[in-house]
Amino acid sequence: MCTRSTRCCWFGGPGWQKVLCYRCVCFLSVLFVLGVVLLPAPVECGCRRLAQKPCEAICVRTNTLNRRPAKEEGNVSLSQQGAEAWTCELRIVVIMPANTSVEASLPRVQPVLEKAEGFIRREGIIPSDVAIRWIPFDDRCEQARATVMAMDGTGSDSCGHLILGPSCDFALAPVARIARYIYNDGIPVITGAGYTFDFEEPKTHCENEFHMLIRTGLVSFKRMAFFMIELIRHFKWNRVVYFYERQSYYNVAGPQTGHLLMNTMAEFFRHENITYSPFSTDSARTNLTESLKEKVGLSYAIVSPRRINQIATKLPLRPVSSTIDEMSKWLTAVEYANNLRFPALV
Questions:
Q1: What does pLDDT average to over the chain?
Q2: Is the pLDDT of residue 230 over 60?
Q3: What is the mean pLDDT of residues 221-249?
Q4: Per the CB 3.0–4.6 Å rule, which of 135, 153, 169, 298 could disulfide with 337?
Q5: CB atoms within 10 A of CB 313
Q6: What's residue 336's pLDDT?
Q7: Distance of alpha carbon 6 from its chain centroid, rounded?
Q8: What pLDDT, on a 0 to 100 scale, did the predictor assign at position 104?
Q9: Membrane-spanning regions, if any (predicted)?
Q10: Distance of CA 231 to the CA centre of its chain
Q11: CATH number for position 286
């Protein structure tokens, strides 16, 4: 604030309610100049420069000619008055499999979307004159097909503003990668899938792989890996055998969900220096019980002394010396594998 002083030249005359000090004017001028100079340069939100298509806008201006009679010097003539009207439509591309083996499939999701639209209308979240058009595509959980569906949904015929899905991780990856290069500003991809840890990487810059991806799900394979690490640390384990089936939990994220989960687990096990050994049950030569014995063996199993005593009592009756010798050899192997020391059998 300026204060009145003898060195202050005032502007204004009689009747002015407010006057400005000359020094205040100079100070404000300097601030304005500095503000203009120091303002950041304009930022391009798009990842590549493209000519914008008229259909990219949600509301498009349409010119209509309203004819109204007008009187001029007693004669009735028709005058044309250009009136501007707007057509507003939000086009949402839905890319999901039609196969109901996947939880987030078109037959199951479309009724939910209709209810969501009804809620939006009742609550007035968007203006009532904005129409919503759903554009569904069946990607069959295939990468190539999902990519083509995304291009079709954003082409001149459909010109979608938003992509919902895909709901399969393998199909989601290519769509989320190319979304930043669709249109001048890219197109948002919203999905409840994207469980693999790659989809949780930073997305703030165009250089980021999945820049336009928005995940709405709360659970991911990364969170599951953190839970497993906490469990392993709690029990002070340091070696893990990971049994998995490549095509397990197909209903969650489509093909090879089990394999994607294993990859995420392995990624974070390496960060924590946890020794792990993956084993796909699809490649098991024998039944799972025999595979468990062969893969786990003595290197990963820990047997308590109490359990060993229970096993010893169930051994077939033999001479005492031979039974003790057999158990001693087995105990020595377990001690070597797990750095344990059991009390001697006497």
A1: 75
A2: yes
A3: 88
A4: 298
A5: 7
A6: 41
A7: 66
A8: 93
A9: 20-43
A10: 26
A11: 3.40.50.2300
